Queue: 2 jobs
Job 1
Amino acid sequence: MTTLHDAAGPELTAAQLYAILRLRSEVFVVEQDCVYADIDGRDLPADTRHLWLTGEDGELLAYLRVLTDPGGLRRIGRVVTARAARGRGLAARLMAAALADATGEFVLDAQTYAQGLYARFGFVPEGEEFLEDGIPHRTMRRPAKDGAVG
Ligand SMILES: CC(C)(COP(=O)(O)OP(=O)(O)OC[C@H]1O[C@@H](n2cnc3c(N)ncnc32)[C@H](O)[C@@H]1OP(=O)(O)O)[C@@H](O)C(=O)NCCC(=O)NCCS
């Protein structure tokens, strides 16, 4: 059984933030062998939303964050599932939770191999593939519904 958590930046406890940064570091820096500034100053603002799933022992299984870019556009990022928990639909569950009831536009920069995950939620690739920190990415956008802005 898993538990869904949903918190704005200022609501995170030190232990929650530590677990989140630990998983991000384990996967994006160590597993993907990529030196980049994961701690980018965007985790603590009130308009940043963190969503994650924990297992029965409280361990962090999967995570993503939703940023608010200047102008109000929502940006999904740092989508990650612990290695041992992959392929069980956890990232898809977090995507569904992040987008539930949302009508505004969303954007994300997908690692090219993972585009299928986002396409299932209405994200459409745009522009050319590009390298970010040496990893191939593609920008994907999910249009607002019926001209909604929020
Ligand atoms: C990408 C990632 C978050 C997927 O997490 P997950 O919990 O295993 O994903 P799910 O089980 O919810 O899979 C949902 C969909 O994602 C896609 N997907 C997941 N892993 C994939 C992979 N390794 N290759 C291609 N597509 C994949 C599939 O479309 C899958 O749909 P399916 O169930 O019909 O096959 C996980 O593999 C991960 O943490 N990778 C390392 C970090 C990373 O690259 N994050 C993505 C940044 S854009």
Note: The beta strands are 3-8, 49-54, 60-68, 74-81, 106-111, 124-132, 135-142.
Job 2
Amino acid sequence: MEPQKNGTPNAVTMANETPKKVCVTGGTGFLGSWMIKRLLEDGYSVNATVRLDPERKRDISYITNLPGAAERLRVFDADLDKPEMFAPAVEGCVGVFHTAHPLDFAEKESEEVKLKRVTAAMKGILQTCADSKTVRRVVYTASISSAAFDPANTGLIDEDSWTDVELVRSLKAFGGHYIVTKAVTEKAAIELAAELGLDFVSVIPTWITGPFICPNFPESVYVSMALILGDKGHYQHLKESSLVHVDDVARAHIHLFEYPEAKGRYIVAAEQFEIGELSDFLSVKYPQYKMPSPDSWKDVAAVKFSGLSTKKLEATGFKYENGLGEMFDGAIKSCKERGFIN
Ligand SMILES: NC(=O)c1ccc[n+]([C@@H]2O[C@H](COP(=O)([O-])OP(=O)(O)OC[C@H]3O[C@@H](n4cnc5c(N)ncnc54)[C@H](OP(=O)(O)O)[C@@H]3O)[C@@H](O)[C@H]2O)c1
């Protein structure tokens, strides 16, 4: 895609302005790209931030070819390492959905480097929103990771639960850096938004799965498919777990942007289960995929993502539209289309 010269230094795609304009950071991601799709379908104009290579050769046609994109999507180059790059994308927007976050489970960089990057970017983006005078609410994509590791948890995780980052560090859990960066960033964002007088809402999704339009195999879809893929390393994440369909997560973000009384944090989780129940469900619905024997997970210690209270979101009138059937139908279809599974 050729960058267009349009007076905005890093604006790549230009389209008509409308008053219902919002910004989505991380527009190339699994959730970000689906958010763009949903927002365009709902009539919004979207300023999406993406990371472009210096030659601007990255193929982002899966978002720029979406229905409505030619008229209502503008794409901006922005990297979390340079928070000032997000300002042109926020300009003139009434809402900002901040989803961009590194999901580097391989932990190639140190926790310190990642933490510095995401918190500095979050601060820059919130300051830009406060300065804009147009942004009326920021909706931040947090994660159940920032609530689930609460030592005070007595079996129910709700919006008052907070992950203890020292506990996570001591556990040396898979994705530990991610869990810490999400928890620290969300807390710091809530505090800074209060200082700046910004209307700020956190969306706290559990594992997201379902169909995807991005070209890669999204990490969380991969985890949700671990029984189908036979990847024992992730049985720990499904043992006592929960899932939510990507479209319900996108809808929850938009609902919480539009719902006037939205305040604070909202857990988003549609289905909670034990691994045996998930295995039974998958074996009946998709007999072509042979499920592993229960012996293969019996000694696996659960990384618990169940026992979640979703009452606060439901009390706002939000309704989940997708269950496990829609999640796995969508995920399997997208995986097959890309040749990730047979
Ligand atoms: N998927 C889940 O189960 C789940 C659950 C709870 C919360 N979340 C949250 O949802 C959000 C989206 O996650 P996802 O599953 O959609 O992951 P994803 O597909 O990896 O998307 C992450 C997005 O962040 C962008 N990003 C990463 N590092 C960046 C940087 N340095 N500068 C600019 N952009 C950067 C990525 O850009 P590139 O394409 O250039 O890498 C991508 O667009 C994240 O905040 C995540 O914490 C996800």
Note: DSSP finds 16 helices and ten strands in the chain.
